[in-house]
UniProtKB/TrEMBL annotation:
Its main location: membrane. It is a single-pass membrane protein. It comes from the Eukaryota. GO terms for cellular component: membrane. The lineage of its organism: Eukaryota, Fungi, Dikarya, Ascomycota, Saccharomycotina. Residues 469-720 form the LicD/FKTN/FKRP nucleotidyltransferase domain. The keyword Signal does not apply. The gene is SMKI10G2560. This is LicD/FKTN/FKRP nucleotidyltransferase domain-containing protein. The chain crosses the membrane at residues 21-39. GO terms for biological process: glycoprotein metabolic process. It is found in: Membrane.
Amino acid sequence: MLSIRRFSMFALRSVRLHIKKIAIILVTVQLLLTIIYVLNGGLSIIDGGWKSFTSSFFEPFTHTTRNNFYANFDLRSKDNVVRLCEKMNFDTSGEWIDTYTLKNNLLTVKMGAEKGQVLNSVEDLRYYDNDPRLIWSVVLDHLLESDSNEYAFSWYDWANFDSINKLIALKNTKISCQFVCEGVFDKEVLERVEREIQERLFFTNRNKYDQPIWYNKARNAVGSNSVQQIMHDHCKNNDAYSGGTPFELPFIVSKIYEKLRPEVYDLHTKNHLLYSNFTPLSLTVLDSDKDVYRINLRKADSSKSNIVQTKLLRNYLQRHKDEMVNGDLIFNHTSIFEKFLDHASTKKRKLNIEGLDKTIFTREYLELSPSDFHFDAKMKITELESKLRSEGLSSHDTHYLQSLKTSITTAPALQKKYFAEASDVIDATAEGHHRDRRFFSIGHNILDDPQEFEARLTSLIRTFQKFIKANGLISWLSHGTLYGYLYDGLKFPWDGDHDLQMPIKHLHYLSQYFNQSLILEDPREGNGRYLLDVGSAITVRVQGNGENNIDARFIDIDSGMYIDITGLSVSSDAAKQYMSKFVEEEESSDKSFSTLIKDYKFNENDHFDEVDGRVGLAKYSIFELKEWVNSHPDDFTDAEKKQVTNTYKKELDISRSDSAEKDLSPKERYLLNEKYNLYNCRNQHFSSLNILSPLRNTMFSGVSAFIPNRPITSLNNEYKVPPRYGFLTFQGKVYLPEFRYWFSFFDVKKFANLQSRDPKIIRLENPLNNLKFSDINLLLTNMIKCGFHSIFANLFNSFESTVYRLKELEIQYDLSISEEEKKKILKVLRGEVAKNMKSPVKDPVIYTYEKKLWERVEKLMNASNLYDIVLQVEKRKVEEFVELSRQVYKRKYDGFRLPDGGSGDAVTDLNHIGLNLFGDNKKTLNDIFGSDQKY
């Protein structure tokens, strides 16, 4: 987290021997140069003159570059370094540590031979970082000034192109398609690039290129003939490029090729995205979790539509020239954002979707209806076509109508895979199977930084939940995400994605109004940018060939990480055997599900919504489709024939399964599932209305969320949930309830010094399953000594979220509290405590920005002094964590003490309400997950 391992005391001692002599020489030279400067009447700053000359001259020898390129934030100040250390690791607010200005940030050259020079104007920019403060300010100001609700979109402004900018900055080093089409970079070319830009091209695994055995093996893995073919099929020269053309590269990746190392694939996909014709349909701007605003996008000419090329930036500066001080200007994006929200013209951008209720998150319970799990595609198509003829359709409605028409003609056995993961990237540690291939990125160092990895995943779910709440859409936590929530209100630390479910009716709302929209987090809270992508066959509700089990994804465009979203509906898939008991339970009779099926009178005239107006081959059952393919072999590829055959075999397997519906036809299965409210996603995860409804309102990762009515039952259908809340081991992981956190057992053994291998680390004497309060301070101190800085930061930042979940559990499972009283107390907890809850993670964009500042600090400051600062900050935070834990332990936590009358309820102190699952008096009988609680 803090790169302490990089501190080299040996190097420091050797440098100190000569530092005084060097300092004397430098001061003398600087004095002479100053005299020359004065005698010659000075040099023009605009022409790159004196400041640029002295900055570039002294930078290799001193650590005093001009303002360090950051306005009003001196990185040589000890107070500022302390502040940066604390903010980078322990402040999860959306506030920036400094200001973004025209001169110090935008116009100051950051890379290459001209590093440190200040450009004359924005017209001289060849590249720039898409700092959110810059982009938000310019775009929102343009929309307000023009009173328009659209503008020309460029991925360059909204996605992170740091790695691409390094190539654009090159003037002397020539690169071509070959550079990004080889399995690994050509080391000679790589080193030439890095010499010119004066920094690393990438950070993750960069050291491997200095290991001859690894490098030669990696280079030989792909033959030269293969590389030539890859270049021919996937890359072409850029005709618009002529040495040094602004915002251009000499080549264009026309088609993504995956079998590359992560660092190569990063540049490969970023180039492809930059020159892609793919443009989102809109921007959806969040006002926290209250409202959303729609900004329509114009499809621009290739990539030539960023804020410099469209003159938006120039016009912005012209409008704000009176605010400039000494030719500089601060980009205050949050001020402009609030002006945007308050502006009269913004009202027309606000989305209020007919049929959705934005008040649902004010309720403790949300009742679901069987109608939520049905959707009539034929009726919707008729409705949209009528609207098209009478008044025309928006871009979103047009896209949705086309999607519906595609979907109803798609035979489940012939579906083409819609979502594409970067699963063929060379290097299993890259987690390519959990990344969208279009947006895969290793970022600054995301693969080796668990803190950033966790921040991105958590920011994903937090923004999605705020987006859901702001629109009144219905979804709930499912699968592994629900399982992780159960213990501490967070995801499992080892999970690489999130899983959510929606009723099919709301999946269609999502598709109609937000498919292909870029969702933008409220910039006052964070800087998330996510593409909402819904598959093209969501009316297909059976598994079919299994290629499209996921209905939609919420994708982080800076990393490719995503949330999996699946819709639940009635379908003709055979219900799993575990559903039998829920049917029998709902019927309240002695009859088994099999007996109920035999007694059921199937009516041939019963409606069969499964067809949903299907046409062509899509209306055929798999048996009919198999016959059609056999009689028309020339109309199908070998791959399609194989898909049909495999789907046909899966249907035959149902008759040999243990499903109660195994002897029924697809139509009969549909009618039975509809009658007994059995719903499934396309991955054949089944649930029932009485498992799901009413949904329960809770907090997950610090934001509002719904969970199923019977979460334990739901999870036990997929997993086996241990009944005990307490110390728990699972696949090399350990849950310590005193910290409300999961740890790697390998890490625990180290910072608890269980094997007494490190004499500097105090050994934990108490068993892990019976920790004492005093052990908290011991283990935290050991964590810091062992270098587990990221783990401690995560523990500290998630304290409020995990303590909230602890209190929620104590109330929910306390049998001495009546159901009605529980409802009142939980409402107070959620209404008064949760509203002040901070985010358990940092915004990843701000974290990356501060991490780069810290890397500059490491070059500027004495290593031993820096090490002392880090220890000083962490020691304070350990003390703070221990004090907060003591409050919880003594049941005197300030966070549970509500202002008198703050809620209008008699309950003002929640500390002593509910079970005591923490402290000396904690209940020994804490088998609370044995069954679902009722309230």
